[in-house]
Amino acid sequence: MLLNEPNCRHDKFAVMVGVTPPKYSSEELARLEAAEMVKHDYEGKQYTLYELMQLQNKYNRQIKNLQQIVTGLEAADGERYKISLERRNRQLDKWLVRAADLSELINEIEKEFVRPQTPEPELEFNVCLSNIDDYLKGKSLSYEVLDWFATNGNQTSLGQFAPGDNGQDYNRYDIQILALVNYVNEKLGTSVDANIIKAMMKVESQVGYFQGSPTANGNIDVMQVLDPGIKYSANFYK
Predict the structure, then answer these.
(1) 40 occurs within a structural domain
(2) Global pTM?
(3) What domain range includes position 227?
(4) Is residue 19 part of a domain?
């Protein structure tokens, strides 16, 4: 992003012709160009948005000049120049009011240039259920689906573990645990407590942090249900 010029509202950025996708479609550009040509009534005259912005700059310069004069009169001798100071303050107040009114009008007009936002479709139960079905068959799964099941299922909270001595976050998979337990309970009609699953993860792999034998793959098999060496664990824990 390059630095803008003073009083310039245009953004400058690098593009690669034929590679960088256009920011606006042809239809959007036509809509914006038409909006720029619309005349707006202000103090009995008609102005385009650009002309109103130029007028706003003029007002701001006038206000700045008056503020400098008032500051100078106050610093010189407020009492000696009392009448002049009062007159300048009255002028300043009028310009400030005009500038505020103009700014409000410009802000209202600029709303016409905001790109209409397409609302995100709300996730539905059957859609989320189908997404997790597909995930268990090897497809990817969005965080939004997990979050939906974690906050809309029968169980929406878990007990919390304190951090480990080295700052381990044993609560880092809460969303995934809640989502998948809620999914299983819904599919199978069971009532598994997600806290039990979380506790098993803590015991089996320290929620993925423990890498010693026999849980050398703890970071990817946090419950050790796929560990080929699990048959040796009975001897390990004797």
Answers:
(1) yes
(2) 0.45
(3) 125-236
(4) no
